[in-house]
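Handout, page 2. Input:
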Amino acid sequence: MTLDDWLDLAALILILVGALLCLTAAIGLLRFRDVPSRLHAATKPQVLGVILICLAVALSLRSWPVVAFLVPIVLIQLATAPLSAHVVGRQAYRNGTIDETGLFVDDLAESRRTPPASGG
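Output:
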């Protein structure tokens, strides 16, 4: 086997693993019951799956312009997925849709007890 064949095989394996991770993220998003578990499923395996698929595309096409196009995709995924999960988790906490008995540490409990400042 030549080097090109090995790189194509590695790209195939990375595509399959990345697609499997994205599929498990989607299944976890549908099957998990509480918000923290759904957020975990929506961020961690999905971002890793997208990174592996981008790496496979870069290996398959073997072109620097393609790599330059894929790097911002990966960086945007790494920046937006945790941020959106944080915002959704905080809003779920404020709405009371999180089972607070399952939390080990409740860092927001103090902010919940204090009344908001009046604007007048």
